[in-house]
Design brief:
The chain has 222 residues and is mostly helical. The chain is 74% helix and 0% strand. The protein is built from 8 helices and no strands. Helix 6 runs antiparallel to helix 7. The longest helix has 37 residues. It is extended and about 85 Å long. The N and C termini lie far apart (83 Å).
Length: 222
Amino acid sequence: MKGHSLKKQNNYTYYLRLLSYKKFLLRWKNYWFKISGRWSYKNLQLKWDNYRFKISGTWNSCPLTCPINKPHHRHVFWSWFGSFLAIAATAYLSMKTNTPLLMAPFGATSVLIFGVPDSPLAQPRNVIGGNLLAAFISLTILHLFGSSPWTMGMAVSTTIAVMQMTGTLHPPAGAIALVVMMTNAPWEFLVTPALQGSIILVLCAVLFNNLAEERTYPKHWL
């Protein structure tokens, strides 16, 4: 009776092992099917054709140049006038106070806040918030890991991701991250020029853009 019970137990153990082995085989076959299907010749050919179609489709629609809607001459004048006064005023304050309020990325900021003031990327939240985040993130990475090719990439990419998550996307902020990494900027850079310079530019945009009847800036503050 005891031997019969032991034999029955051995058979049950053998059955469980066989069942687990079959499950393993099924999972392996399913996994292999996914890989082979994903990287099959037909699938790769389809992806390549899709990629080539995107490029050729763009080329066929605009072989060399696409028609561009040029802004009215009044818009061009106010963009020129506003950006001239904003950069000149910031540079003048920088000289008078002996404080570095101006940096190269602010030229790109001026393109947005005066050239396309209606753009979501040109609003005060984006200008001040984006530039401040870029300075803080890149300064943190710089002082933790130093300046190197991979930390430069990390500073710019992290800045982009955080700006997207916080709704403060501002393209010139990517340049600010590089300025910090390439100049080994101190922590004071966070306030001057990143914060103070951004505020001055936004105030200039508010004052000068609204002098034109057809312009309203900002569209929103926050």
